[in-house]
Amino acid sequence: MEIYALKDKLRLPKKLASIRQKYIDAGIPSLKSASLNELMLHVSIKNPKKILEIGTAAGVSGIAMLCVSPDAELVTIEKDESLFAEAERNFAEFGFEKRATLRLGDAGDFLNYTDAKFDFVFLDGAKSRYVDYLPDIKRVLNERGVLFADNVLFRGYVDGGVSYGRGDNAIVNNLRRFLDAVTADEDFISSVYEIGDGILIAQKL
Known about the structure:
Elements: E1 3-5, E2 11-13, H1 14-25, H2 33-46, E3 50-54, H3 60-68, E4 73-78, H4 81-93, E5 100-104, H5 107-113, E6 118-123, H6 130-140, E7 141-150, H7 169-184, E8 188-193, E9 199-204
Parallel strand pairs: 3-4, 3-6, 4-5, 6-7
Antiparallel strand pairs: 1-2, 7-9, 8-9
Helix pairs in contact: 2-3, 5-6, 6-7
């Protein structure tokens, strides 16, 4: 597979790197390079069979995970119709239609009712709802399953290093509650890293 190395050592298939850059240039949210690199590394190490992604966006992170874990199957959830359509096209372009199940809708609804089990959960949806998702994420994670959550330090606001306005109060407070809940849970071993916009990595014991 042809590999394209970005300046910060992120390694993606050249076609996927091009797609990712197109969305960045268009202002469509994408994982920061360091966070995406860390995600790919942990998926590759874990080699999960079943992955759940909350927040498909245009499909770049989901495709990247499938590229580094060739035996994995992915369920990915997106509530934005236009992004969902982009993701469908992108997964098809990589030939991942049979390995990826794309769901249009609210992640909370899916988590409330699913009986599926997963080895790896990538959480990159609505930041203010991370804490609400947590009980169901814990339920659907297999033993030794990994939770990888992005944006947990949210622009430096969560750790108090950067001041913020009232409009961000709900997100910041809920992310703090989420981090407190995971790190206090004796069923998880977890760490928070100042990588990208902040990532939490936790393994269910």
